[in-house]
Amino acid sequence: MCGRKYASEELTWAEYREMLNIIQPTSNLQPNYNIAPTHVMPVCIWESGRAALKPMQWGLIPTWAKDAKRSYAMTNARSETLEEKPSFKNLLKSCRCAVLVSGFYEWRRDGKHKQAHKVERGDGKPMILAGLWADNPVLESTTYTVITTDATPAFAPIHNRLPAILEPEQVHSWLTDQWSEAGAMLKPYAGAIDAIPVSNDVGNVRNNYPELLRPMVAMD
């Protein structure tokens, strides 16, 4: 499950160009400390023979949908069933995308209590998430979904699902290879990730400020 993401002020266009091998843009982006479904952000796709950024709304609306209500159920797509779901299987050949973020949020449940965590790469580098995207001409929408895998044993105490995380050197192949090769990349992330408790204020989408990323101080 991936229900919230964040892109801090440290995630610059220079990193977008370097990690995704794109030639545009030339100006910096605005940080978003609480990226929620329906928010629009730049997403990397393969277009006209090169990697390019395209603004998209998070929450995939299928190409055949006549209304936008289904988008709320399609913020994530399970890697194991992509080839079975009508909303996704027709996108696997040429509508794969990469989403660059600083990290994402997840909630660990302990009985009735849920505690928010920010989840980052252990090496501090931005995360590249594998996704699918769709244009819907009737609704004039361009939307995307984040693909998830089983959690690693280390992450399982937080949640049983984990976004499919790509390394920079995998992005070109993910965007352009045949599905038989690209689909094989959708495995639980083998690298180190850190899950750090933060304020549950992130649960309110209206809250969007740098302090959401501040680690909680353990109380004696």
UniProtKB/TrEMBL annotation:
<keyword id="KW-0378">Hydrolase</keyword>
<keyword id="KW-0456">Lyase</keyword>
<keyword id="KW-0645">Protease</keyword>
<comment type="similarity">
    <text>Belongs to the SOS response-associated peptidase family.</text>
</comment>
<dbReference type="Pfam" id="PF02586">
    <property type="entry name" value="SRAP"/>
</dbReference>
<protein>
    <recommendedName>
        <fullName>Abasic site processing protein</fullName>
        <ecNumber>3.4.-.-</ecNumber>
    </recommendedName>
</protein>
<keyword id="KW-0227">DNA damage</keyword>
<dbReference type="InterPro" id="IPR036590">
    <property type="entry name" value="SRAP-like"/>
</dbReference>
<keyword id="KW-0238">DNA-binding</keyword>
<dbReference type="InterPro" id="IPR003738">
    <property type="entry name" value="SRAP"/>
</dbReference>
<keyword id="KW-0190">Covalent protein-DNA linkage</keyword>
